[in-house]
Amino acid sequence: MRLLATLLFLIAFVSPVTAVRSGTVHANETIRVAILKNAAGVVIDGDGVLAARENGTAVALTTPVSIKPGKNGIVAGDSNYVRLVFGASAAVFVNGKPYRGVAEITLGEKGLLVVNELPLEDYLVGLINCEISSAWPIEAVKTQAVIARTYALNRKEARKNAFYHLESSVIDQVYEGCLIEDSRARHAVSETAGEVLTYKGDIIQAFYHSNCGGRTEASENVWGASLPYLKGVECEYCLTAPSALWEQRLGLRDIEEKLRAAGIRIAAVTDIRGGALNSRGRLKNVMIVSGRDEVFVAGDQFRKAVGYGVIKSTNFTVKVVGGEALFSGLGNGHGVGLCQWGSKQRALDGFGYTEILSYYYPGTELKRLSDIR
Asked: Which of helix, strand or coil describes residue 70?
């Protein structure tokens, strides 16, 4: 009975809280983060790990526990399960990485799906050093804490009927558990506890990126939705950062293969040229010359096809010489919302996190969850 009672306590501690409109968001928030998708296998380990079925019934499993996909569920040891939930007093290790809260394992579309459910504030502490460095000026770290909290709660509301709220990659926010937590990250989260950015009483869509290259982007230029607090601002603060300038040299054949893999019908690419610019100075589209044809590809679609880590922004020029395209660009990321490197420089210049937030998200208000009505 002690095993069952302890595990049920752990699971209850991070049980789902229904997210509703901003007026009734609970103070003790939890968040569900997909940390593995389509995994061929998962190993669970840790001190004092307890396991339960989806109905809360305790399962006696000896760690490390190896879990594999089954025909109609998951397999651990010699038994089949619909879902297993693992909890521990400190951390549950999933494939060698420690996570606070519980790890919930089910069968996904093409393998195992692992969801980490934990208190929102603990999630933020683990996230800080994945997104920036906690060694940055503390006002910049506080800024990141508020923005990450705001983004997470907005996504939780938007995906309240989904099995999880966030992914642990750049698709949402980068998060790798509690391995790289530290005291400065925890201090920044604690100092801003429960604070979120709002617009007319609602929690905003708090997009952010690494480096804007001198000016942030308008949301409608990337996603088609015009948001009043994401119109773009001037930002010279990031231009001295190492990520401000980039160059990339790629063969035309390589680019052609990536574009075709993305479903863009082209053949025998001979040239690539920058197209029209949008209102914020970034490329609306890229012209691909293929034989006698000219194909225009949206700037962000081109980035996605070739690789976000390769073409780091849509603020670039391109020149083709000898079958190779030389890209020269500014910034890193989609450019919408907070510029992380700009935030760092503004903090070094003496601005507090509230001032930094109001600059990059004009018209918003910083509020505590308990005060949102």
From this structure: coil
138-157 mean pLDDT: 98
Residue 274 in this model has a pLDDT that exceeds 60? yes
pTM of the predicted model, to two decimals? 0.89
Residue 144 has pLDDT above 90, yes or no: yes
Which helix (H) or strand (E) segment holds residue 183: the answer is helix 183-191
Tokens of 19: 């997210």
Show me where the domains of the chain are located: 2-121, 123-222+336-371, 245-330
CA–CA separation, 158 and 167 (whole Å)? 14
Q: How many helices (H) and strands (E) does the chain have?
A: 9, 24
**Integer Cα distance of 318 and 288 in angstroms:** 11
Q: How far apart are CA 246 and CA 224, in angstroms?
A: 26
Strands 208-209, 338-339: pairing is: parallel
What is the total residue count of the chain? 373
Tell me the per-residue pLDDT of 294-332, one tens digit each, with 9 for 90 and over.
Answer: 999 999 999 999 999 999 999 999 999 999 999 999 999
**Percentage of the chain lying above the pLDDT 90 cut:** 85
Backbone torsions φ then ψ of 94, nearest 5 degrees? -115, 110
CA 275 – CA 354 distance, rounded (Å): 38
The CA-based angle 96-98-100, given to 5 degrees, is 155
Tokens 């604070």 correspond to what residue?
Answer: 195
C-alpha of 358 from chain center: 22
Using omega within 30 degrees of 0 as the cis cutoff, is the peptide bond preceding 69 cis?
A: no
**With the C-alpha atoms ordered 306, 311, 314, 319, is the resulting torsion angle positive or negative?**
negative
Tens digit of pLDDT for each residue in 336-354? Answer: 999 999 999 999 999 999 9
Nearest Cα residue to 226 out of 279, 188, 273: 279
Q: How far apart are CA 113 and CA 133, in angstroms?
A: 29
